């Protein structure tokens, strides 16, 4: 009689939800615990010099909870490898530090503020120069030099939700042996898998959708190349910007419901987007799930079922004052930075997340003073829609009347 091994709970061919729940979540072989214990030990016993009992030696180099989380993200991004870091920003820093001094990078203009800060103020200290372009699909070939080693894309962009055709950029970059990185934070692996469209590395601020509960700061990079695994895991250990076992465990727990949260956030953002488009108090809505979006065709090609995700932004009538009032008048949306959690958030990019960028540069990419950014959570669509409509009504009326010492005619 032959003993057959039980089938693995999830395989690369399993659906997304099955992988989210089971990948990296083996039952504990000694107790049968369905959920892995949090492994706080910093060091692991060895039976002889250089022969640890299991696969772990020291927790900076590798830790069971971090490894479980990395295996789960690799499964969700259709990647061979994933490496977790202490934040999305640390992930970016490690990838940039993996480049030799003298390297050149091409980046989309409207990258996350912290990424822009690293590219302009830190990377040059180790001899890496970054060129920014607002239309990377159009002019990437003009910016390529013999020193170009990496292209950095964020799609959708923050906060104007513009999309980049990953395949078009990867094709141009690969002709010159240049690596393509996609920051996939805004959509999560449920809606978009950049490696399937030709990217070499996908990065996430786990802080946002992957963890999804606004209680962990963490980052991750996923990719297929063995050579990248060697280089980046060396830096993960050498630099030591690693997440704790507890944060890895929490983020892993959060990710098990990613598909449910991302679907619900999309339903909610779509409802809010349609309501905003129909409102006389709104100048324009940026949401890749709407047919009015200029890059809707890319969304249909790159996003699961053409989903738009949970993030949108819009320009309110009444200028900056109305935008600020709107964010104070919402009752469910909380005025706060960050995104991707179960709770809905709102903010004014021109004076919060994007305040560091000079006004002309901001406005050139659509970040006007009257722009409001929304992160739709998983509350009920009807409640979110009504909350946005009541806040719009009151914010526009108050600022038109010059209430609160503000004047609706300025701010354009
Ligand atoms: C938040 C964010 C980051 C940075 O991640 P942290 O975890 O805050 O360091 C990078 N990219 C995008 C798109 C983000 O939203």
UniProtKB/TrEMBL annotation:
Composition-biased stretches (Polar residues): 1-16
Cellular component GO terms held in the UniProt record: cytoplasm
Keyword annotations of the record: Amino-acid biosynthesis, Cysteine biosynthesis, Pyridoxal phosphate
Signal peptide start and end residues: none
Keyword Transport included in the entry's annotation: no
N6-(pyridoxal phosphate)lysine, modified sites: 208
CDD domains: CGS_like
Family in the record: Belongs to the trans-sulfuration enzymes family.
Protein name: cystathionine gamma-lyase
């Amino acid at each position: 009689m032959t003993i057959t091994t039980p089938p693995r709970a999830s395989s690369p061919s399993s659906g997304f939800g099955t992988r989210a729940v089971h990948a990296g979540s083996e039952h504990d072989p000694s107790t049968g615990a369905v959920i892995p214990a949090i492994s706080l030990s910093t060091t692991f016993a060895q039976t002889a010099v250089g022969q640890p009992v299991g696969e772990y030696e020291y927790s900076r180099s590798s830790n069971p909870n971090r490894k479980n989380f990395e295996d789960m993200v690799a499964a969700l991004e259709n990647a061979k490898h994933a490496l977790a870091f202490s934040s999305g920003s640390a992930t970016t820093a490690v990838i940039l530090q993996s480049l030799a001094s003298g390297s050149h990078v091409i980046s989309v203009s409207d990258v996350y503020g912290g990424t822009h800060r690293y590219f302009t103020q830190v990377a040059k200290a180790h001899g890496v120069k970054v060129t920014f372009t607002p239309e990377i699909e159009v002019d990437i070939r003009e910016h390529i030099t013999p020193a170009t080693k990496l292209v950095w894309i964020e799609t959708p962009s923050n906060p104007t939700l513009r999309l980049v055709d990953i395949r078009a950029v990867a094709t141009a970059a690969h002709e010159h042996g240049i690596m393509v990185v996609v920051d996939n934070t805004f959509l999560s692996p449920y809606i978009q898998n950049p490696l399937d469209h030709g990217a070499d590395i996908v990065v996430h601020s786990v802080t946002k959708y992957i963890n999804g509960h606004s209680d962990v700061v963490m980052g991750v990079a996923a990719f297929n190349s063995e050579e990248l695994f060697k280089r980046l895991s060396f830096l993960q250990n050498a630099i030591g910007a690693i997440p704790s076992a507890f944060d890895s465990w929490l983020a892993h727990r959060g990710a098990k419901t990613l598909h449910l949260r991302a679907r619900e956030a999309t339903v909610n953002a779509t409802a809010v987007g349609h309501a905003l488009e129909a409102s006389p108090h709104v100048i324009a809505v940026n949401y890749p799930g709407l047919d009015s979006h200029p890059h809707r065709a890319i969304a249909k090609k790159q996003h699961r079922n053409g989903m738009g995700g949970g993030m949108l932004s819009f320009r309110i009538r009444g200028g900056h004052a109305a935008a600020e009032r709107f964010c104070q008048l919402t009752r469910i949306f909380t005025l706060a930075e960050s995104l991707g959690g179960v709770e809905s958030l709102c903010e004014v990019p021109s004076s919060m997340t994007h305040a560091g960028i000079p006004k002309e540069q901001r406005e050139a990419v659509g970040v006007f003073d009257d722009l409001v950014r929304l992160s739709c959570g998983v509350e009920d669509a009807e409640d979110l829609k009504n909350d946005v409509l009541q806040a719009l009504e009151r914010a526009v009326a108050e600022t038109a009347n010059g209430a609160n010492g503000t004047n609706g005619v300025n701010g354009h």
